Amino acid sequence: MSAQQVRLNAVASNLANAQTVAGTPEEAYKSMRPIFKANFPSQQMGQGVATVDTDGIYRSTLPPEKKYSPQHPKADEQGYIYSAAVDPQEEMIDMLEASRQYQNNIEVLSTAKSLILKTLNVGK
């Protein structure tokens, strides 16, 4: 669940900065993607039990969008501004997928809790 929370935070940051502009390509916002890895507890290795952890955050290497806008206050000496290379539609899809996976994790935990409580009540 914590990995999906990191993913949702990255998507929120990308969407919040999708329309930002900068005066140079280096200053333009670079979108973020979390990198996940499976974490197998040593005693559970090979038994299909694992958790997912965030291994780091990847910054996009896509070049920013270059637009000619000489009247913009952040325009460079040639009159260009640079905006983040963020696709809002792709980010929304990623957000939906992450939120559904988060909801699925909550459902699994609720089901496990319910089964444990039913198991405890069998002996009564």
Please tell me how large the radius of gyration is: 22 Å
Number of helices: 2
The topology string of helices and strands comes to: HEEEEEH
Low-confidence stretches: none
Instruction: Tell me the strand order in the biggest sheet.
Output: 1-5-4
Helix content: 40-55%
Strand content: 15-25%
Q: Main beta sheet, described?
A: 3 strands, antiparallel
Tell me the number of structural domains. Answer: 1
Characterize the overall form.
elongated
Average pLDDT, to the nearest integer?
88
- Cα distance, first to last residue? 34 Å
Structural class designation: alpha+beta
Count of strand segments: 5
Give a verbal description of the structure.
This protein has about 120 residues and is an alpha+beta fold. The chain has one domain (about 1-120). About 40% of the residues lie in helices and about 20% in strands. The chain has 2 helices and 5 strands. It has helices spanning about 1-15, 90-120; strands at about 20, 30-40, 50-60, 65-70, 80-85. The strands form 2 sheets. A 3-stranded antiparallel β-sheet has the order 1-5-4, with no helix packed on it. A two-stranded antiparallel ribbon has the order 2-3. It is elongated and about 80 Å long. The mean pLDDT is about 90.
Record keyword descriptors for this entry.
124 residues; alpha+beta; 40% helix; elongated
Write the layout of secondary structure elements.
Blueprint lengths: L1 H15 L4 E2 L9 E8 L11 E9 L5 E4 L11 E4 L4 H35 L2
Antiparallel strand pairs: 1-5, 2-3, 4-5
Helix pairs in contact: 1-2
